[in-house]
Design a protein that fits this description.
Beta-Lactamase; six-stranded antiparallel β-sheet; Heat Shock Protein 90; 876 residues
Amino acid sequence: MITARAAATFEPVGRSVATARAFVRDTLQGWGCADIVDDAVVLTSELVTNAVVHAGTAADVLCLRDDGGVKISVADRYPEREIPLQNAGQVVVHPDREGGRGLLLCGALASRWGVEYTAAQKHVWFQLDLPERPAGTRSAGPALPVDALPVTDARVRVAVIQIDRGGCISFWNEDAQDLFAYDPEQVIGKPLTDFAAWPHTPGTGTGIAEALQLSRWEGSYGIRGADGRVVPVYASHLRVRDADGEASTVCLLVRDHERAILQSPQRTPAPDAASQAAQAEGRPSDPFEVFIGSPAPDDLDGLLQRTVERARDMLDGDAAYLLLATDDETELEVRASTGLPSARQRFARVPVEAGSGRYGSARMPAVHEDLTAVPGAVPLLSGTGMRSVVTVPLKVEGRLTGSLGVAAEGAGRYTNEEALRLQFAADRIALAVERARLTELEKLRRGSLSFLVEASDLLAGTLDRDQTLALMAQMTVPTLATWCAVYTVADPTSEPELSYVLHEDEDRIDGLKTLLMKVDAPEPVPTPGARVWTAPSDAAHDAALRTSMRSLGLGNSARPSTGPGATLATASAVGGETVVLPLVARNRVIGMLTLGKPTEEHFRQEILELAEDLSRRAALALDNARLYSERTAISQSLQRSLLPPELPVIPGVEVEVIYRAAGEGNEVGGDFYDLFPIRDGAYGFAIGDVCGTGPEAAAVTGLARHALRLLAREGFGGPAVLERLNAAILDEGARSRFLTLLYGELWPQEDGSAVLKVVCAGHPLPLRLRQDGTVEPAAEPQPLLGVMDDLELYEQTVTLDPGDVLLCVTDGVTERREGTRMLGDDGLTDVLTTCTGLTAGAVAARVLRAVERFAAEPASDDMAILALRVPEFQAR
């Protein structure tokens, strides 16, 4: 059964979180639920933050008390938001992230919790059970000397006023008459509002009528006395009901300076195990453990977060933050905060020295009574609604290592006394923070070295441009950034081109790429280091705004190309800090590496330095891949120029050529072939192999192919053609290469046969396959070209009958190896024996398949296969 109820609505502004904490704290203390106040305040703070900061809607807070405990519900106006479920196959958010953290805390602290949806709201509720207490003392204070007791008048007067359910006074005791000079007849039956001077609490909207309906309420207001003056009072209200079920409110009032008589004890942090043990043993407790608690977090982020939370509670502030100094002490970096949008400010940097937009109070304790009078004195608090702040430095051996600050929404909250208390705490933790920072930095540096070594190995392992671009992006996401884009610059006169985009969420890549294509590329500046680039986040926010306006019918009626969800998701993905690092190789900017964070996040300086080291290695790898690709393209183009563009159709003869270049394609091979018409009815064919590869071999190959055509069409016979080609090769001098060459001339005959005249100069002998399956050499070996001056060659005549095949290959076929085995002339003969009745194309394909299957390793030499076949039963 519900015994008490309190509700309040908070506007979607950051300071509402602190107001909601105060509302829940005061409500639960008024109900006598001090044991669960701290947990309730923490959970409410996180849930209200989700509503007013992240969802951007008002938050409705409802507190209900029953016999077993307290149930608190926080409702926002954004029911579409998802909740992270522990066992639903989803990734659980990190506790340091703001989004979803409140639900994780509910699961950890609450007795029960849940989420309820309506068409317009989402309610997140949690139940905190009250511990069972034995009958006895509720709370007690220590014995104090007389001069430390609170001061009151000679006679303490406690006014007792009872208010009926209509808000009218039904009872007025003698102390009320003495305090306010009204007789009971003057006030009974009149509304309390006629006498109360009620200050409204900012952000809650709770008035006197609402306060009288609460089960418990405690606070200050005023009562107008009979003389017209307002008497400040401190009041404690208790809602009761009589035997008939009639509800009324009993109000106990004292003069405000005597509030200690009614005021509930201030909440104090419970002593931890370490301090209790120290007190039990009679030894002083460690000041560090007293402030931080025991056990202390073993990681830097945990230590810093606990520090700001304890500092805020110690000074009863609305927010606290901690900044760490850079190595040169010229900047401070935000590392932890509470009560502020920490995700937005994390790793942001602020200059230390005095000046506009700088953190001028870093080296000495400082108290700012009203920040509105000194704009920009504490840049971190700009736009947060905080007005008063106390900041103290963290120092180790006189060196500035950081700054700790506590802020409040009201002006004039802090004095030098609070600054001294906070400085005392900062001195206790400064050394521990510095040790943890150095430990983290050492781990980061070791990890950075390992990361760079691995990155260098991966980048050195490929010479493919596209693969290099992909590796660059994959090494940065998600290790260094949430998303990455790589721009390339072909030459100094070219515009940057978006070449690769990657996001840690693959569903965001297309939207991110579309956005970046619409934004002008960053300027290719060779200046080293990372520079901030705001164009993507600005464009994303503009696109999200336009989409939202269209969805509300406030903008252009044209339907957007993407849904609001996709646009808003893209804006969130690129809404944080974006930096650009130049890719400089051989004194030229060849591209830019762009790294980005999601909404309101910043890069750590250590991460930017690591990214800069990676960009230098990546730039050299990308330039090497570019040079290799250019060399490969040139080699392949040259190789194509050394082969005939197309083969002529020879009446009555089937022709098939297969050419396979070995290696990675960046060297020009020495094998070549040709088939060309000489004159009417006569055709020349050749297949050769120049010693070696590269430009020198290509020069001889080009010379041989073009010389063969020219000399053959001039009417020279086979021996004369090869002798003149031999002389031309020798004239090249030191650039000459010896050449094996099979050259022949072919004449199709009327009877369906074909007459061939061939000269085999040091080349593997051509093989003739007859219809009966026999295979025999079709020529005799003669000296190769490019070695001797006086070369005498002769030609041999071969007649191919219908069904016969002439097979010509380079030594890449016959010298195919598997260990100590080699295919050889005999192996090729065996393969050709099985090709009876096959077409020329089928013969060439079977030979190639046999060569490839002979060994598991890829071929190490070029291969050329030329098959000529005279079909059977040709009609002339």
